[in-house]
Design a protein that fits this description.
By secondary structure, the protein is an all-alpha fold. Helix 1 runs antiparallel to helix 2 and helix 3 runs antiparallel to helix 4.
């Protein structure tokens, strides 16, 4: 239960950050986007993109709130099983990355984003994925 609540809080906090960007907030926005060696962004998300990610992260947080029993709603078992494996898979794949700009196996590492990704973003994604697997195996 404690792991589910912790994971829920992490995911909802990440969702709030993305909603902040969707309404024009700048906190951490530039640092969260991968750049090439020349400092040019390789992703240029629109506000709607941040909102969609925020909805997804918040939904994932609510999912783990339900698993913890904090929210008393019981969706069909197949949704719990499917989500219980899908969510960790998404974050583990994000931690592994796409081998160029994002993830542990990226080749472009010496940009501001690359350094933050190595120290913070990818480890956080791996942690979320591992916690999700632990929760799935435990319940």
């Amino acid at each position: 239960m404690i792991l589910s609540i912790l994971l829920s809080l992490i995911l909802i906090a990440l969702g709030i950050i993305h909603f902040n960007w969707a309404i024009g907030g700048k906190f951490g926005f530039a640092e969260s986007l991968p750049t090439n060696e020349n400092g040019e962004r390789v992703l240029n998300p629109r506000k709607i993109d941040s909102a969609i990610v925020g909805i997804g992260l918040t939904t994932f947080g609510i999912f783990y709130s339900m698993k913890s029993g904090l929210i008393d709603y019981h969706p069909p078992e197949w949704i719990i099983n499917f989500g219980g494996w899908l969510i960790p898979a998404i974050f583990i794949l994000r931690a592994i990355g796409e081998f160029n700009y994002v993830g542990f196996f990226k080749t472009v590492k010496n940009t501001a984003f690359g350094k933050l990704d190595t120290r913070l973003f990818s480890p956080l994604c791996l942690l979320i994925g591992i916690l999700g697997i632990i929760i799935q195996l435990k319940y």
